[in-house]
Amino acid sequence: MNKLVKSILVAGLMVILVTMPVFAMSSSNGLESDQQQSVVKIYDRRGNWIADGLLTITNLRNGKIGIDMSTFCHVNVDEIQMEISVEKHNGSSWEQVDYLTYNFYPTNGKLSQATVDTERACPELNKEYRLVGWHTVFVGSGSESLKTNTAGLVITNR
Fold first, then answer.
1. In a 3-state reduction of DSSP, which class is residue 51?
2. 113, 73 in Cβ contact below 8 A?
3. Residue-wise pLDDT tens digits, 6-26
4. Spatial CB neighbours of 46, under 8 Å, sequence gap ≥ 6
5. H/E/C letters for each residue in 58-125?
6. What Å distances lie between residue 28 and 21, 32, 33, 35, 84, CA to CA?
7. The CATH number of 35-155 is which of 1.10.10.10, 2.60.40.640, 3.40.50.2300, 3.40.50.10800?
8. Which of 11-15, 31-35, 106-110 ranks highest by mean pLDDT?
9. Where do the structural domains in the chain lie, given as residue ranges?
């Protein structure tokens, strides 16, 4: 009886192990992604002020483009400036349709990160848009910049 129980348990364990890769496989449901993200990570603490830059474009499905941009620094800085170019794909090239600039200054003497979360009306629906971002930090008379960009994403109203 003891051998029978052990055999059943071992067989059950083998079935679970054999079928595990099937559960790990991704499946496509035919839906397009509503978000494209670009993440740049720089972990060089030998004088760089910018640690990370993040830029995300999202199809909000209401005719608007969702824009998220963040800048993270290793140390406190005097100013963080984030510039975002919204570009539309026109066949073989990209055309700038909007340009946004955000400046952040220290509160209580500290500034090491800044985030923008906004949405913009889409000039023309069912077209492909992308974002190009510039993260710039200022310390004293010096500055450091980082460029990020997203892949193209079709913006719809549904």
1. strand
2. yes
3. 788 777 767 776 665 554 444
4. none
5. EECCCCEEEEEEEEEECCCCCEEEEEEEEEEEECCEEEEEEEEEEEECCECCECCEEEEEEEEECCCC
6. 16, 9, 11, 16, 32
7. 2.60.40.640
8. 106-110
9. 35-155
